[in-house]
Amino acid sequence: MILTAYENELFQRPAMLNSGLMRSFFIRAFSTLAITAAATSATASSSEWHDSEGGKVRLVTTGKPDAQGKLQGALEIALKPGWKTYWRDPGDSGVPPQIGIERSSNVAAVVLAYPAPQRHDDGYSKWAGYDYPVTLPVTFTVPSPGEPVKIEADVLLGICETICIPVQAKFTIDPATGSDNQADAAVVATAKAALPAEAHPGFGIDALPSDQETLVVEAKVPGDGTGTDFFVAGEQGYMFGTPVKTVKSGKTIFTVPILDRPSETPTGEGLFYTLTDGGASVSGTLRYP
């Protein structure tokens, strides 16, 4: 894809943009790239690799869905040294990994899961993501498990070195073909094993009184708080700034700027968060502020 001079400037200085402008460009780039992207053929339960400047990506599945209609898979992102990609909430620029399934047959929904991210500072902004090859577990919902399934997946993610570029790939997969591939099953199992554990009272978050402009939480962690970080996903109309941590009197407090919020409180489980403490991590949901 050929970028205009204005679009090149956007990618070279992402932190000087508001997230809506950057994300709208990614969406427009996605639409443009979709016209020319090559698709892998439906000959296996997993795809071939799609190469890009900063690495390669492929979609893996374990084959047939279970009796509940859940088909497990993974999005493998093999980054080259020096390149990075985003968590579910990339901060004030970029977009998280996405999988579109609108053209699929007998697939009703897809959900991505994420290992604990890192905090990155590129000199323009701070954001959450990964600077190493990462594999994201994927769960497809199959309404009729006993019927044929065809996955037509449109994958979009942003990867960054000194500039950020959109990577788009189209994968066509027949989960029933080659569904006994043990190597692919191992990829999925390893990805799921790398996910944060479920938050619990001894390792998790307690919401504290907040106002309309800030989210305040107390982190309950095994350690002393010095190696603790908190990541909250701005979804359903919420947008958050970088959390500010204070450790005082044995308590670890994170104050998070609320940059934008919906006009009405959403219904649902709440906001996804990940809490890290050294090499350990947990994930959970936090009630809407």
Please describe the structure with a list of short key phrases separated by commas or semicolons:
289 residues, disordered N terminus, 7-stranded mixed beta sheet, Immunoglobulin-like, mainly beta, 5-stranded antiparallel beta sheet
N-to-C order of helices and strands: HHEEEEEEEEEEEEHEEEEEEEEE
Mean pLDDT: 85
**Gyration radius, in Å:** 20 Å
Distance between the termini: 41 Å
Approximate shape: globular
Low-confidence stretches: 1-38
The biggest sheet, with number of strands, parallel, antiparallel or mixed sense and barrel status, is: 7 strands, mixed
By oligomeric state, this entry counts as: single chain
Helix count from the secondary structure assignment:
3
Textual characterization of the structure:
It is a single chain. The chain is mainly β and 289 residues long. It has two domains: 5-193, Immunoglobulin-like (Sandwich); 197-286, Immunoglobulin-like, CATH 2.60.40. 13% of the residues lie in helices and 41% in strands. It has three helices and 21 strands. The strands form four sheets. Strands 1, 5, 6, 8, 9, 11 and 12 form a seven-stranded mixed beta sheet that branches. Strands 2-3-4-10-7 form a five-stranded antiparallel beta sheet, with helices on one face. Strand 3 (55-61) and strand 4 form a beta hairpin. The longest helix has 18 residues, at 19-36. 39% of the residues are buried.
